[in-house]
Please model this.
Amino acid sequence: MNNLVYIDEYGLLGSNFYWHKYEAKGLSKEDILEAGLTSDRVQVHKDIIEQLVAIDKEFQNHGYRLYIKEGYRSMALYNIVYKRRIEKFGKEETDRLLNMNDMPHATGKTVDVALWNEKENREVFLRNGEDGIDALFVDFYKNREGEQSEVFQDLQDMVIQTMMSHGFRLGTKNEYFHFDYNL
Model:
C-alpha cells in the first residue's frame, strides 16, 4: 500500500503489537515475516497522520502521550493471525476480537492505541490483565467497585472521547482501544 507512512517520522510513539507478541498469540517468527511484518515500526495511512499528531498533543495536555500499538496490518497477517489464534484460543474467543469481515487494519486507517507516561517511560495500563478478555470492551469498569476500576474507566473514557473528537469511531467489536477513521 503506497499511502502508508511510519508514525515515528512524525514524532509519534508506538510499536507493532504482533512484532512483540507473536509467540503469545500462537504465531511463529516465520508466520509474521511471511505476512510482510519485518520490524517494530508502525505504519498508518497518510490521511490520518495529522489527526494522530493532534491527538498526541491533546493527550500531552493531560500528562500523557499517544502510543500506537498497531496501525496497518496486511491481509496476509490478518489471515495467519486468525488461523493461529483459533488454534491457540478457539474460534469463539478469536471471533470476539478479530474482525475478519472488514479487516479494518488493512486500510491503514485503523489504530489500536494506548497512553504513554513519558516521565516513567512506560505504557499506562487501561485495564487489569487479570480481568480477562471482557475487560477489553467499553464500559467493563463502569459500575465496578474500587479506585482502580474508576481510574481505568476515566482513562478509557478520556481516550475514547479524544479519539472521537478527532474523527475516529470505535470499531465494530467495541474495544476501548480500537478506532477506525472514515471507514
User: Anything to note?
Assistant: Strands lie at 4-6, 13-14, 43-45, 65-70, 110-117, 122-124, 168-170, 178-181.
